[in-house]
Recover the amino acids of this structure.
């Protein structure tokens, strides 16, 4: 299939967008001079079919419109264009040319929701006043393909399954959790077997799968984990398997502990996984079985080398983030030391002139990431010491009181905890906020806006930058906060 459908890993999943779901293929924008523009398409119009095929999602659009000519049925609401109603049009383009049309969403018929009753479902552990969009339990195979979301496949119909196979929608990202029928049923609910049946069919059809196990202590670890690993090992189409610990909040009625409180239990998981990793490297040249960063943190073990992560196919599932961060920090400090020294001098000069005390930069992170942020700023400080400059930055971990439990990752930082735990006096300091704490609408999980947070911190005397929480992005954002400063 060559219809531009491959998932490139660049889209960050967002489970809490506040925008309404699409109910059809509504046009958001049309590029001037494009084939769509020349055919008379305009924002606000609706594409009902392509080549006689009704559109369910962007996959249909790209599949049906993959050639250089496409016949469209378009509906024009009142107030859009000169006349309302339906019309037919033909789009034509040169080889390799884009159609020049963007839709309001990638799903035209709404999100497929979850039919399971997973014991460890995070949405069952949210506070009662959480906004409605956070309660939407999506389990849509199309978002698995397009955005990398993990799905259980329990709501996939025979027609859906055939579509996945026919259109080669791969890799699919599948939550496996366990393979024993009784354990799966207890974990997922009465539809558990359907997920395994569909996954078997995908493997039989030769589709690539990235798998995931959410590990719950005393439920699917130990012998059941071994059975699941054996099952995956026998299916080479599952090219990576992420094993992540269950997380729980203070609102959970079922869980009050996990691997984060048990060093030895975490080490036992590492010991179980290691022979599977070793065999995979010996036979396939890849590690394949990959533990999430949390397990190494909980087990008080060093994170493995980059080669362990096979190019980071499950980076946004928390697989290899810490190693990638540490390696990038080391590379940056080694290759661009002069730049970092100059930036540190500039930041400290500004900070001192404003009457601030302490390092000029306060970089926000979750408690789970504090050690690697500290390591980065220690490397930077060593570079500064050799260059005759003062260290300029420190990390500030935000404790997650809003969710409680063992929630400690950077992406789940909320506004109320952030504002309560940052100093009231931030005069002359630059506060670096991680963009992953905001959704695509620039809102936090507790419903605050990025605009309000920046305004509040500014009232305390801070200048703020929002960026990807990576060493290079942090340095770039600090350098770009005032383009005239470091010229």
């Amino acid at each position: 299939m060559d219809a531009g459908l491959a998932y490139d890993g660049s889209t960050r999943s967002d489970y809490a967008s506040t925008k309404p779901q699409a109910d059809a293929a509504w046009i958001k924008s049309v590029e001037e001079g494009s084939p769509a523009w020349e055919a008379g398409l305009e924002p606000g119009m609706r594409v009902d079919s392509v080549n006689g095929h009704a559109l369910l999602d962007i996959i249909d659009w790209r599949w049906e419109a993959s050639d250089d000519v496409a016949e469209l049925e378009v509906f024009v609401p009142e107030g859009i264009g000169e006349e309302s109603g339906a019309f037919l049009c033909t789009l034509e383009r040169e080889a390799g040319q884009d159609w020049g049309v963007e839709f309001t969403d990638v799903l035209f018929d709404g999100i497929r929701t979850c039919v399971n009753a997973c014991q460890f479902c995070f949405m069952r552990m949210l506070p009662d006043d959480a906004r409605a969009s956070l309660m939407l339990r999506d389990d849509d195979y199309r978002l698995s393909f397009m955005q990398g979301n993990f799905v259980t496949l329990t709501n996939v119909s025979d027609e859906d399954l055939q579509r996945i196979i026919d259109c080669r929608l791969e890799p699919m990202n599948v939550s496996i959790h366990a393979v024993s029928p009784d354990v799966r049923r207890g974990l997922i609910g009465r539809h558990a077997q359907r997920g395994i049946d569909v996954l078997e069919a995908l493997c039989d059809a030769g589709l690539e799968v990235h798998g995931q196990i959410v590990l719950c202590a005393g439920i699917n670890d130990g012998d059941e984990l071994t059975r699941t690993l054996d099952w995956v090992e026998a299916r080479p189409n599952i090219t990576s398997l992420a094993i992540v610990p269950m997380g729980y909040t203070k609102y959970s009625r079922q869980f009050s502990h996990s691997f984060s409180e048990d060093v030895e239990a975490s080490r036992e998981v590492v010991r179980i996984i290691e022979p599977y990793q070793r065999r995979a490297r010996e036979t396939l040249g890849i590690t394949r079985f990959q533990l999430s960063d949390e397990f190494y943190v909980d087990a008080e073990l060093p994170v493995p080398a980059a080669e362990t992560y096979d190019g980071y196919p499950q980076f946004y599932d928390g697989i290899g983030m810490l190693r990638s961060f540490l390696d990038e920090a080391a590379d940056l400090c080694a290759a661009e030391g002069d730049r970092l020294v100059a930036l540190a001098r500039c930041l400290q000069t500004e900070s001192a002139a404003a009457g601030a005390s302490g390092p000029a930069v306060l970089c926000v992170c979750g408690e789970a990431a504090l050690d690697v942020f500290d390591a980065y700023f220690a490397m930077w400080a060593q570079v500064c010491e050799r260059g005759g400059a003062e260290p300029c930055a420190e990390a500030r971990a935000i404790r997650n009181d809003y969710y409680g439990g063992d929630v400690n990752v950077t992406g789940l930082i909320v506004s109320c905890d952030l504002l309560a735990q940052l100093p009231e006096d931030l005069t002359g300091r630059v506060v670096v906020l991680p963009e992953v704490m905001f959704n695509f609408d620039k809102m936090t999980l507790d419903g605050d806006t990025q605009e309000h947070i920046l305004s509040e911190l500014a009232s305390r005397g801070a200048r703020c930058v929002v960026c990807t929480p990576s060493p290079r992005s942090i340095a770039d954002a600090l350098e770009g906060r005032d383009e005239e400063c470091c010229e």
Notes: The CA atoms of residues 226 and 272 lie 7 Å apart.
